Amino acid sequence: MISMTLTEILPSLQKLSHQEKIKAIQFLATELAQEAQNLATESLEYGEIDTELNFQPLNKKDMIEESKSALETYRRTGSGVKHEQVQKWANSLTIHNNNV
């Protein structure tokens, strides 16, 4: 697959007919919708946050077991993850989009 920058593509896009420009817009809109769908699907992965605050994927069965174990520990000890640790993890989340 050939990779081109927007600067390289723009002159060619400007030369397109009106109808071809509409088709290009439709193509890009479809591509963006598909990417958004893929991101939404990826965000539904099961997993846990490790001690280095990295997401570790788990299958559904393992995630259920981890959740049950965490709930049982909480019921037994009355303690869970400290707010500061959750806040640190949440603040570390970023969305990387290098294609803009």
Task: Summarize the topology.
Elements: H1 6-14, H2 18-42, E1 47-49, E2 55-57, H3 60-77, H4 83-92
Antiparallel strand pairs: 1-2
Fold and architecture overview:
The chain has 100 residues and is mostly helical. The protein has two domains: 16-45; 47-92, no CATH class. A hairpin with a 5-residue loop joins strand 1 (47-49) and strand 2. It starts with 5 loop residues before the first helix and ends in an 8-residue tail after the last helix. The radius of gyration is 22 Å and the shape is elongated. It has four helices and two strands; from the N terminus they run H-H-E-E-H-H. The model has no long low-confidence stretch (mean pLDDT 82). It has a two-stranded antiparallel sheet with strand order 1-2.
Count of discrete alpha- or pi-helical segments spanning 4 or more residues: 4
Mean pLDDT, to the nearest integer, reads 82
**Mind telling me the C-alpha Rg?**
22 Å
| Beta-strand content bin | 5-15%
Distance between the termini: 19 Å
- Order of strands side by side in the largest beta sheet? 1-2
The biggest beta sheet, please? 2 strands, antiparallel
- Helix/strand order, N-terminal first: HHEEHH
Structural class, from helix and strand content?
mainly alpha
- Helix amount: 55-70%
The stretches of 5 or more residues where confidence is low (pLDDT under 50) are none
The total beta strand count reads: 2
Tally the structural domains: 2
Describe the structure using short key phrases:
100 residues; mainly alpha; 2 domains; two-stranded antiparallel sheet; 4 helices
